[in-house]
Amino acid sequence: MLKILFATTNPGKIRELQEVFSGMSVEILSIKDFNNHLPHKFEAIESGKTFIDNAEIKSKTYGEKLNILTVADDSGLEVKALDGRPGVFSKRYGNSDEERNRRLLNELQEVPKSNRTARFVCALSLYDPNNRKCHTVEGIMQGKISYSIQGAQGFGYDPIFINETGKTNAEISLQKKNQISHRGKAFRKLKIYIQKNYKI
Ligand code: ITT
């Protein structure tokens, strides 16, 4: 069975990957499985200007250190009325999901429905320590920012992001989110690449 490390600290991302990869002969490992092999407080420094840069920094940092095939995700929300912010700073836009969502809703308080367009972007990078190369793919989900927090499923900005179903990402099931989401689209591209190149 092919072993792949998913180098993320975000449990929401892990749940979504497990759903897409279920039924494949792949064993998904997490950073916790390598706690004894990593220095205390080991982390990748997300210094890139794009989601792709940061996904590659994360996959290389862990894949090199642990010498294992490694997937990393860098993702975030781009709001048109805010010139694409928070973008790569999505995680650094506040100290908790709640704070980040409230900040965005406040910033868009006066913005009419017609101008609340936003998109989620997900860059997924697979690093192979045998050839020291990254294969990186992207997925995008278009939608609008709501006027209030709605729904309790998902994670992060999901409760304020209205998707093509007219509901927020936090009001739909994990399976439905994967069908239409930025991450689901990127995972499926990567899945095809893995099936082809690692003969599973
Ligand atoms: P890593 O350990 O994988 O880096 P992270 O949560 O720090 O996990 P990022 O640096 O990629 O991840 O930051 C992504 C930010 O965008 C973070 O605030 C997430 O909550 C948010 N985000 C990403 N994908 C999302 C999704 O599908 N739904 C809602 N919010 C999402």
UniProtKB/TrEMBL annotation:
<dbReference type="GO" id="GO:0046872">
    <property type="term" value="F:metal ion binding"/>
</dbReference>
<feature type="binding site">
    <location>
        <position position="74"/>
    </location>
    <ligand>
        <name>Mg(2+)</name>
    </ligand>
</feature>
<dbReference type="InterPro" id="IPR029001">
    <property type="entry name" value="ITPase-like_fam"/>
</dbReference>
<protein>
    <recommendedName>
        <fullName>dITP/XTP pyrophosphatase</fullName>
        <ecNumber>3.6.1.66</ecNumber>
    </recommendedName>
</protein>
<dbReference type="GO" id="GO:0000166">
    <property type="term" value="F:nucleotide binding"/>
</dbReference>
<comment type="function">
    <text>Pyrophosphatase that catalyzes the hydrolysis of nucleoside triphosphates to their monophosphate derivatives, with a high preference for the non-canonical purine nucleotides XTP (xanthosine triphosphate), dITP (deoxyinosine triphosphate) and ITP. Seems to function as a house-cleaning enzyme that removes non-canonical purine nucleotides from the nucleotide pool, thus preventing their incorporation into DNA/RNA and avoiding chromosomal lesions.</text>
</comment>
<dbReference type="GO" id="GO:0009146">
    <property type="term" value="P:purine nucleoside triphosphate catabolic process"/>
</dbReference>
<keyword id="KW-0460">Magnesium</keyword>
<feature type="binding site">
    <location>
        <begin position="155"/>
        <end position="158"/>
    </location>
    <ligand>
        <name>substrate</name>
    </ligand>
</feature>
<dbReference type="InterPro" id="IPR020922">
    <property type="entry name" value="dITP/XTP_pyrophosphatase"/>
</dbReference>
<dbReference type="GO" id="GO:0017111">
    <property type="term" value="F:ribonucleoside triphosphate phosphatase activity"/>
</dbReference>
<keyword id="KW-0547">Nucleotide-binding</keyword>
<feature type="binding site">
    <location>
        <position position="75"/>
    </location>
    <ligand>
        <name>substrate</name>
    </ligand>
</feature>
<dbReference type="GO" id="GO:0035870">
    <property type="term" value="F:dITP diphosphatase activity"/>
</dbReference>
<dbReference type="Pfam" id="PF01725">
    <property type="entry name" value="Ham1p_like"/>
</dbReference>
<feature type="binding site">
    <location>
        <begin position="182"/>
        <end position="183"/>
    </location>
    <ligand>
        <name>substrate</name>
    </ligand>
</feature>
<feature type="binding site">
    <location>
        <begin position="8"/>
        <end position="13"/>
    </location>
    <ligand>
        <name>substrate</name>
    </ligand>
</feature>
<dbReference type="InterPro" id="IPR002637">
    <property type="entry name" value="RdgB/HAM1"/>
</dbReference>
<dbReference type="GO" id="GO:0005829">
    <property type="term" value="C:cytosol"/>
</dbReference>
<dbReference type="GO" id="GO:0036220">
    <property type="term" value="F:ITP diphosphatase activity"/>
</dbReference>
<comment type="similarity">
    <text>Belongs to the HAM1 NTPase family.</text>
</comment>
<dbReference type="GO" id="GO:0036222">
    <property type="term" value="F:XTP diphosphatase activity"/>
</dbReference>
<feature type="active site" description="Proton acceptor">
    <location>
        <position position="74"/>
    </location>
</feature>
<keyword id="KW-0546">Nucleotide metabolism</keyword>
<dbReference type="GO" id="GO:0009117">
    <property type="term" value="P:nucleotide metabolic process"/>
</dbReference>
<keyword id="KW-0378">Hydrolase</keyword>
<keyword id="KW-0479">Metal-binding</keyword>
<feature type="binding site">
    <location>
        <position position="177"/>
    </location>
    <ligand>
        <name>substrate</name>
    </ligand>
</feature>
<comment type="subunit">
    <text>Homodimer.</text>
</comment>
